Amino acid sequence: MKKISICVPAYSEEDNIQALYTELTKVWQKDLSGYTYEIVFVNDGSKDNTLSKMQELGRRDERVKVIDLSKNYGKEIAMLAGLDHCSGDAAVIMDSDLQHPPELISKMVELWELGYQDVYGRRVVRKKEPWLKIKLSQIYYKLLSFISQTKIENGIGDFRLLDRECINALIAIRDKERYTKGLYNLIGYKKVSIDFIANERFSGETKWTFKDLFKLALDGITSSSVKPLKLAIYAGFLMLIPAFFYFIYTFVRALSGKTADVPGYSSLMIVILILGGIQLISIGILGEYIGKIFVETKKQPPYFINKKNSKL
């Protein structure tokens, strides 16, 4: 009998853990009785009673694993920790807040049995999501697809079923500065999408802050392409060309004795500020890449587990 692992990273989601477990149990009893399963909960340094809720389920059900990370590493590393400890023939990654509908798992399994190795959910509607957030998300994914030269569609996240070959490929990549959405495309394999309507959160508020989203967006851009470095070079040349012609123009006017008409400090300051801004942005982009190189060359483990609190 084939085994399906459910990988659930969670940060301060104490009110959602039991509800998700109940829904998953119902799905298996109703639609997936021909498969065994395990639920791999990953506690990503939660500040509430999320861990104790997971441990309680682990004591009641031998199919529940609990991974307690030593601190808050972020969702990307939490997913890696979950996949590291999955033992199934396939794994489903999903959020703990029930926005990813558990009833969709049976359809994912059907497509997996047809030979697809990466069955990913495509969110077509997200209830009560702000208009501005939707538009910013669309712009970001278009920008990311352009910069990375890899098509990453809006509405596609981490809710997906992965075959064991995909799991092994992802866990073989031990990057600490991870952008898993880019890695799904990197590893390849036979993919298919399945549309779904995202539910409202079962309980609580999202833990994603603007700072977290900005960092994830920046990681997505700098982790999947070196094109920003090339764009910085192009920007430098674009500024150099008009500056060169302006220099010739000023020089010729000075030779002809029309120095009084040469613009003074205002125009000079404008040019300096523009060039300074481009230089600082370019240095910042370069710093992002150098920082990633520094982190990866230290060869530290991506995460540490508090084994006393875990059930492996």
UniProtKB/TrEMBL annotation:
Record-annotated Glycosyltransferase 2-like domain positions: 5-167
SUPFAM superfamilies named among the record's database cross-references: Nucleotide-diphospho-sugar transferases
Gene3D superfamilies: Spore Coat Polysaccharide Biosynthesis Protein SpsA, Chain A
Keyword terms of this UniProt record: Membrane, Transferase, Transmembrane, Transmembrane helix
GO cellular component, one term: plasma membrane
Record keyword Translocase present: no
GO MF terms, alphabetically ordered: transferase activity
Transmembrane segment boundaries: 231-252, 264-290
UniProt keyword Membrane, yes or no: yes
Domain of life according to the entry: Bacteria
PANTHER family on file: GLYCOSYLTRANSFERASE CSBB-RELATED, UNDECAPRENYL-PHOSPHATE 4-DEOXY-4-FORMAMIDO-L-ARABINOSE TRANSFERASE-RELATED
Record's protein name: Glycosyltransferase
Source organism (scientific name): Vagococcus acidifermentans
